[in-house]
Amino acid sequence: MSGRTSLRPILILALSFTVADRAGRVGQMLDVNNAVAGGTVNFYCTFPLFRDKSNIVVQWWKGGEREFLNTQEDPRRSFHIESKASAILRIHKVRFEDAGVYYCRVQGEINGNGTGEQLDVSVPPDPLKIFTVPSANGSRMYRCQTSEFYPDAYNLVWRKDGRRLTAGVKTYSTKNTKGLYEVSSYLEEPQPGPAGTVYTCEVSHSTLKIPTRVNYIVEFAGNDSSGFFAWWIYLCGAIALLLLIIALVLCCKFCCKKPKARERNIQMRQCIRCFEPIVQNPKCKEQEVKKVNTQTPQRNTSKVEKANKTSSQRKKHHKRDKDPVFA
């Protein structure tokens, strides 16, 4: 935003010279000629003052390409008419491949092409990586690897517990197919330091305000193979943990399925017993019939005889009432 606001007076001054001339020249400006990867850059296209914004079309293209820039193909790019005398192209999260010359074209009330602006993109060498590598002569060797960077100007320094090292250092720089550079630096220590020794790889570059660095702390003293001892411990521990997890999963599956299988077998047996015919001994069957017959309730004879006597007495009394002699 500070670069954009600082360009406002320049744009106004340029417009003051072009308002009188309708066929004036289309100009361009760039807020930062050398951008750092990951930042934002702004291209400005200036032209004489116009009346109607709808009658002006501004398009952008990159040198070497046949088509105009399209925001749908790359959403990092955005462009619009900022005022009646300027348009802007903004690129977010700049990449190394965005470097090149950019032009603007104005059509409508004013027609013309911009003069073009060169964009250079620098890439920092961080993050760094440091690790040990095998050595045949029994010494310990450390390797410092940078990320892809540009330009190739750099300064790499090795330190041991803060003290700069120069002996046993070999550094190699290579350029890849994208035009970026990578550096690998080796430090050979004939006598490895004790446990707790700190080795530092430090790199300075034009894209960095302060040097970037990475540390390596010696965990075990001894020959160069000790550098890999800790990694083998971690690897073996991870494998053992994985095997333990697999064993627990298999055990849980087996234990959970076994009770279910038992329940299913018990249910099948019960169902089979329900549908099996029951065969009884014929003697037992006769005994059960006799028991049923003996258990049948018998009539109470005393109550029946008493009821018969009472009914006969009632009949006698009834006849006496009807007999005229007694009347």
Order of helices and strands: HEEEEEEEEEEEEEEEEEHHH
CATH superfamily of the largest domain: Immunoglobulins
At the first level of CATH, the class of the largest domain is Mainly Beta
Into how many domains do the coordinates divide?
A: 3
Shape call: flat
Distance between the termini: 146 Å
Enumerate the spans where pLDDT stays under 50 for 5 or more consecutive residues: 1-5, 8-23, 223-229, 271-275, 322-327
Helix percent reads 25-40%
Biggest β-sheet description: 5 strands, mixed
What is the overall number of helices? 4
- Mean pLDDT, as a whole number? 77
How much of the sequence lies in strands comes to 25-35%
The Rg value, from CA coordinates, equals: 52 Å
CATH third-tier fold name of the largest domain: Immunoglobulin-like
Could you give the count of β-strands?
17
Q: What would you say the CATH architecture of the largest domain is?
A: Sandwich
Broad structural category: alpha+beta
